[in-house]
Amino acid sequence: MGKKQISKPTSKKTTIVNFILIVIIFIGLFIYMVSVDGIDSIVDLLKNADLKWVLGGALCILFFWFCEGLTLHLPLKKLYPDQKFLESLRVSMVGQLFNNITPFCSGGQPMQAYELNKTGKKVSDSFSMLALKFIVYQMALVLFTFIIVIFQFNFFISLMDNFIWIAIISFAVNIFAIVIVIVAGINKKVIPSIAHPIIKLLGKIKIIKNVPKTTRKLDKSIANFNKQFKFMKSQKVLVSKMFVISIVQCLSYYTITYMVYRAFGNSGLSVFQIIPAQAFLLLVMTFIPTPGAGIGAEGGFLLIFKTIFKHGTINMSILFWRLYTFYAPIIVGALCLLPSRKKEETK
After folding, report:
1. Which of 57, 186, 201, 206 has its CA 20 to 30 A from that of 338?
2. pLDDT at 340 over 50
3. Domain residue limits, the chain
């Protein structure tokens, strides 16, 4: 019996355009660095960079990827006992790739569901597990950030004095997203009752072409998610494990900035002072509608950390931070996508 396939969510043309934009951003950042700092200063910075902190940043991002793969693997393993961790990690990295090359990180989950479907997983199961992972990670992210900000409140306020309203809005939006997903899991009628009129309105103004089809797909997705959510509610131990791993994952990601801070001779601040500022930047990046929050991420890093990093080190720090958190996931994710291009035997 042939295996049911789903269409690839991201077109080649869109992917190519996004990759070109990413390359342009990288070249633009490099040109800006050379024009501001000079090639001699850049070479000196690289020569004097503390290797142990550079390697520390690499270990942090590797551990972040490991946690990312593990939080996807645990629920998949529950539904599919034959699921291998390396396959979960590979799919996770494909998600990292498409999160970074699509606006608002919109391409990651569809591509992960596509890759899981190719290995025999039901699309409904895949999206349910990915939604569960999203809920747990967002809850861990918001809670972890909130606790760190509370403990470093005075420092955070002094640093974010001109941006505090953005931080409040960012927290609110993330909490709202968590609430929406949880509500969809608890009551399958609430979201459709709100979404159906919106879909009809979008249909009238020609944004949505096929209103009945879109409505049916939404209802089916909500029903499937509701079914899986009820199942996962009984898995308190599993969810607790995912939550703890997500907390550690957040810490690992935020620590990368501290590693970059120390790599170029900066000192005086603790990791727990750097983390709140990095957490704020990550929340703000969710509103930037370019692949990987390009330009906005670099600009935000410059605005937030320029008074913290030593003169002449901020631009190189931006480059290294983006190499860890943006370009490395794209490269590794692309490599993880290559095996899936091979012709698969249908089941």
Report:
1. 57
2. no
3. 50-171+238-338
